[in-house]
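thoughts on these C-alpha cells:
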Amino acid sequence: MIGKTPAWVLPVVALVALIWIVPLVGLVAISIRPLSETTLGWWSVGEISFTLDAWRNVWDRFPLAYAAWVSTKIAVISTLIPMIMAPAAAYAFHYLSFPMRRVLLLIIVNAFVLPNQVVVIPLFLLWRDLGMIDNMWSVIIPFAGLSFAWSVFLVKNYLEDFPKDLIEAAQIDACGPVARFFHIVLPNMLTPIAAVAILQFMWTWNGLLLPVVFLREELPLPALLARVQGVYDNNFDQVAVAAIITTIVPLAIFVVFQRYFTAGAQTKTGSKE
C-alpha cells in the first residue's frame, strides 16, 4: 500500500519550481520591456510598458534563422551518431566475449573524467592542419566522440536488468549474435536510446566552447548569443531575446520526451500493459 504523501512535500516542490521559473519570467520581462525600465531590475513596477523593439533589433542585426539551422544540423547529426553506435557497443560489451573486452570497457568508462577543455588545443591544431577550421564536422566529431563513453555506459547499465530468458530462448532458436541484437535486444532498448538522444541533443544544442573555437562563419545559436552580448553595449534586452530563442527548442524537446526517463518498466519486456 502506498503511504500518504507528507504535507511538507508540496510546499518544498512548489518552492523549487518557483526558483526555477523566476529566471525564465525575468528573461521574458526583460525582452518585452524597454531597457530604461529594467536597468534597475526587471521586477520594478513603478512604470510598466511593453515593446518588441529588442526582438526586432536582434532579428535584423543577427542571422538568427541561419544560426538556428546550423544548431539543428550540428545537434541532429551529433545525436544520431551515438544513438546508432552506443546500443551496438553496449550490447557487445555486455553479451559478447572478445579479447581485451574489460580493458576496452575500462578505457571507455575512464573517458568520463576527461574534461572537454583538455582536448580543445590538440583538436584545434589537428583541424588547422587538416583545413577543417570553420567546418561543421570539426564540431560534430568531438561532440559525438566525447559523448560516446557515457552513452555506452548508460545503455550498458540498462542491459544489466534485461531479461536473460529472451536471450537464451533466441540462442535455442539458433539466432546468432547479430540477429539477437536486431530482433531481441534493440527493439527493447527504446528507453535508454531515447535518454541518450535527449541528453545528447540538449548538450550539443547548448554547446558553446567547441563552436566558438572551431567555427567562424557558420555559428550556432549559443555562439551567436555570445556575439549579441557584446562588450561595451548595455543591451540586456537583446541578450534576453537571444537566450529565449536559444532555449526554446531543448526545453520543448525535454517536455515532450521526458516520459522516456520513467518508461523503463514498460519497454524492458517489449510490451506495454
Q: What stands out?
A: Residues 264-273 have pLDDT under 50 and may be disordered.
